[in-house]
Design brief:
Elements: H1 7-32, H2 43-97, H3 104-127, E1 129-130, E2 133-134, E3 142-146, E4 152-156, E5 163-168, E6 176-181, E7 186-189, E8 193-199, E9 202-207, E10 212-216, E11 226-234, E12 236-239, E13 247-250, H4 257-260, H5 270-323, H6 327-353
Antiparallel strand pairs: 1-2, 3-11, 4-10, 5-6, 5-11, 6-7, 8-9, 9-10, 12-13
Helix pairs in contact: 1-6, 2-3, 2-5
Length: 363
């Protein structure tokens, strides 16, 4: 029997301290709802869960970006719907003015309405905005350049192959588009080119994947050997992922009257009205094509929103498995530790009483 070293009390104290630490950790887990509160709980699990949590939060923002982009597309399409209606009205007026039963004063009155509609189309293109960003004024279209002042890159899709091209419109019945490559540049056939045609001052090249390149030119003076620089710069980039480069580019063509081919609509003569019918028809086709592209964008963006929601849901499940605590399981552990702490406290008290038994030997 020893009084200076109470081994039983030391054992009870060590066990009690261990159980109290475990009980404290269990209390923290139950209070926070997390299985991992400190890196020491699981170094690998903490690193994985933090990385996964960052990805989840990024995907939530990416989903918001895609949802906002849907609103952008709907805003642009709504404005183009009104442009479409006005073009239809201009078409009606052109047909009306082309009949021989009207007088000059009648056609002058019709011209005033045509001019007003054209100005309104220009105003819509100028003023249609989303978050102060102009949508129809050409700021959201891909940028392209030519080496001739009277030839413009009117539009091209983001999926159209980027690079340098040479366009020959000397024979508008048989336009030729070649890609320039190498140094010095050499002409090669455009791979994947499905069709190219020129009509009404516009040359349209269509790839097999449906992407388009539209070049405007002076119909009275078709150019030859025009060099095109398709830069791949422009459009509204929508970040739809958690990593750099995971984006969708929205390309919205410029909708000013000169771009859709109605800047010179003159119905004051019967011949002019008949020519205007063709111009308006081409403009309607141009706007319809743009709206069709916007519809495709919206479908793609809505699919992206759904896909991101699914990804977030799955990642949240994985994150919860690593990070979150099973409350029922932890409550069982917590209850056991409480009993052990109470038992340890009782045993420590009894162990501290044992040295007092030595006093009985002194009596």
């Amino acid at each position: 029997m020893k009084i200076n070293s109470n081994i039983q009390a030391l054992v009870a104290q060590n066990v009690l301290r261990t159980n109290e630490e475990k009980n404290s950790a269990s209390t923290e887990k139950l209070s926070s709802g997390f299985k991992l509160n400190h890196a020491k709980d699981s170094p690998a699990g903490m690193a994985i869960s933090n990385r996964m949590h960052a990805q989840i939060r990024s995907l939530y923002k990416a989903k918001d970006n895609a949802s906002n982009a849907v609103n952008v597309v709907q805003t642009a399409d709504g404005a183009l719907g009104e442009v479409h209606n006005m073009l239809q009205r201009m078409n009606e007026l052109c047909i009306k003015s082309s009949t021989g039963t009207l007088t000059s004063s009648d056609r002058e009155a019709i011209q005033k309405e045509v001019d007003a509609l054209r100005k309104e189309i220009e105003r819509i293109a100028k003023d249609t905005e989303y978050n102060t960003q102009n949508l129809l004024g050409g700021y959201q279209e891909m940028k392209g350049y030519t080496d001739k002042a009277d030839v413009k890159v009117a539009y091209y899709d983001a999926d159209f192959p980027m690079g340098d091209y040479k366009l020959d419109l000397s024979d508008t019945d048989n336009p030729v588009l070649k890609v320039l490559s190498g140094d010095p540049p050499t002409e090669k056939d455009v791979g994947g080119l499905k069709n190219i045609d020129a009509d009404n001052g516009r040359c349209t090249a269509v790839m097999e994947d449906g992407s388009k390149l539209i070049v405007s030119y002076d119909e009275a003076n078709p150019p030859a050997d025009v060099k095109l620089d398709i830069t791949g710069i422009g459009g509204m980039k929508i970040q739809v992922g958690s990593a750099s480069g995971q984006e969708i580019r929205l390309v919205i063509p410029k909708m000013y009257p000169e771009n859709i081919g109605i800047e010179d609509v003159d119905v004051r003569t019967e011949e002019g009205a008949k020519r205007a019918i063709e111009d308006i028809a081409a403009a309607i086709e141009y706007v319809s094509s743009a709206r069709s592209t916007l519809g495709a964008y919206q479908n793609r963006l809505e699919t992206t929103v759904s896909s991101l929601s699914e990804s977030v849901e799955n990642l949240e499940g994985s994150y919860s498995t690593i990070k979150d605590i099973d409350m029922a399981e932890e409550m069982v552990e917590y209850t056991k530790l409480q009993v052990l702490v109470q038992a340890g406290t009782s045993m420590l008290a009894q162990a501290n009483e044992q040295p007092q038994q030595a006093l009985q030997l002194l009596q």
